Every structure is written in C-alpha cells, then in structure tokens.
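Quick one: co-fold with fe (iii) ion.
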Amino acid sequence: PLVLGIETSCDETGVGIVRGHTLLADAVASSVEEHARFGGVVPEVASRAHLDAMVPTIERACETAGIALNDVDAIAVTSGPGLAGALLVGVASAKALALGLGKPLYGVNHLAAHVAVDQLEHGALPEPCLAMLVSGGHSSLLEVADVTQGVEPMGSTLDDAAGEAFDKVARLLGLPFPGGPHIDRAARSGNSFAIDFPRGLTSKRDLERHRFDFSFSGLKTAVARWVEAQQRDGVAIDVADVAASFQEAVCDVLTRKAVDAARHRGIEDILIGGGVAANSRLRVLAEERASAHGIRVRVPRPGLCTDNGAMVAALGSELVARGRAPSALDLPADSSQPLTTVVA
Ligand code: ATP
Ligand code: MG
Ligand code: FE
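Sure, here it is.
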C-alpha cells in the first residue's frame, strides 16, 4: 500500500510517503532553532510552526515521491502521545486529507511508529522483539509481539528521559540545544573512564523493584555537582571527558537493561528507536553486549531515529497490509495516548 504519514507530536513537522516497506519521501521541517534560545521546546511556538510548515511539507513529500495526493491508499497521522496543540495540527490536516480524498485515516501511536520505522531500513520487523525507545520525552523497554496490535511496557524512566538528560547535561557544559548530538561529538575525543558517574537503578536493592526501569535525574545532578566543584576549585572543565563519562553512564545502563529484558523474555532481537538511538556509543555498546548473548540488534539510521513522517507512514502501511480497521473521522488528538492503543 501507498501511505502518507504525518507527524507533529513535538517540534518536527514530518510528512513521509512509503509503499510497503519502501521509503519514497521523508520531508521534515523542524522548529528546533526557534526553541533553542529557550533551552527546550515551547509548545505554542511548535504549534504555530506546524501550521506554517504543514502544506509546504506535504507538497515537498509528494514531489519527492513523484506521486499525486490522489494516488495514496491511506493517510496515517500521529494522534498521540505528544504536545496537545502540536498533535492537533497534524490530526486536523490528516482528517482534511482523508475526507477530501475519500481515503481511510489511521490515527497512530507515536511510540509504535518509532518501532515500525525500522522496516524501512531492514525489512519486516522481527516479532517478537524487545524495543528500547529512547528520546527527549521517553525511555522505555517494550515487548512487541505485533506492532499493529499494541506493545507491552516492561519498564520506563521514573524521572528524566534519556534525551532530556543529554539536553540538560549539554546545557551545563555550555553546548547548544538539543544537546544529544553535541555530547556525542564532544565525547569522541574524551575519556569515558575519566569520571565515575552513577548508574541509576542498578544496585541490588533497586533491581528488585525496578529491574527494567531507568532513572537519569541522579546522574544529571551528579554531573552538575561535579561541574560546580571544578569551578569552585578554579579547575578548567574538560568538556570532552565529562561528555564521554556521562554518555558512558547512560549507555551502560540502557544497554545492560535492554539485554537483560530480552533475555528475561527469551527474545532474540532488540530494536532501538527514538532520537537517542542516533547516539554512536549506544549503537556500538548495544551491539557488543547483545551479541555476547546471541541477540541481534537493529537500529535505524540516525535520520529515521528522530521524529519524522516516514515512521508514521511505515506503521500505517503495516496497518493497511494486516487489514486493521481505520480510525473514525472524529479522531481526537490524545496527548497521553497509551502504548496499548496503536490505532486510536
Ligand atoms: P518524543 O520523546 O515524543 O519522541 P522528541 O522530539 O524529544 O519527542 P526525538 O526527536 O525522537 O524525540 O529525539 C530528540 C532527542 O534525541 C533529544 O533529546 C536529542 O538530544 C536526542 N538526540 C539526538 N541525537 C542524539 C545523539 N547522537 N546522542 C544522544 N542523544 C541524541
Ligand atoms: Mg524532536
Ligand atoms: Fe519521538
């Protein structure tokens, strides 16, 4: 099926077009620069930017794919979770297209779409798989038996998301927002053993109750304390060493728990998605640790890990292919759409 997908859950206006597992277009307009001076995404600014970007982004995607809107078999859109006002722009646009073209509408779960996107790069999803979703708003371990039916949460962060930790630590180090890519780059010339930052929820006692959960706020505080102490002593901060040591702490816990969760459920494939999956150290460490237990790791290329419309189209295409029922045309945007609801 030929499916057009729309993503507006945060600060990226994404329109993707896929045919089956083949990516035809992935147009993304980001308002990230408008948020940079605030150090985080400002919901009202994001909604307004989606309004401005929507029509040109749809046009750009159709042009790249070489299709006319009328050719599509279905329209898919992120209906949640995400920023309410931002989601509304995408949902209203998708409804207008579906109604105007007389095509079915699928309001899909953003997190399930982060999982489904991998089929555009590596072909049919391994099911069951253990999905680790790590982004600016989420850090979860999920068991995916059938991505079109729902995913089962095994654990998630109790406080900050992994991407949020990257962004906050980058800010402490004077690096621009969003900080993930800057920390990744700085870490390449740093020593990851320079500072022994804490690994959240890995003590024997924590593991009893939170075996598959994460906590990154203690780590962020530890970095802040360390930076303060250096400044007090008048010692210059080695940004590369702090970045590398912090990144190692995050990736260590993420990969350890992902492999543990997969082994616990007897799952042989780990799929990593979300913006933090673009992290170069995470990709290497996950592969290293999983392969030691005969577990395969799939991570889409970085451009498909951050928010985009192709992931929504990918999930939509799977829903059509597996004959799932579409959404009603009065589909609401649901800022806290649960993981168990793949199609709203
Ligand atoms: P949501 O959580 O709803 O998916 P989001 O916009 O925060 O929304 P993404 O676009 O998937 O999610 O991811 C953005 C996050 O990924 C930011 O926190 C950013 O710092 C982080 N990120 C991007 N590239 C890297 C990288 N190379 N290393 C670490 N973090 C990264
Ligand atoms: Mg984003
Ligand atoms: Fe996302």
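If it helps, The chain has a mean pLDDT of 96.
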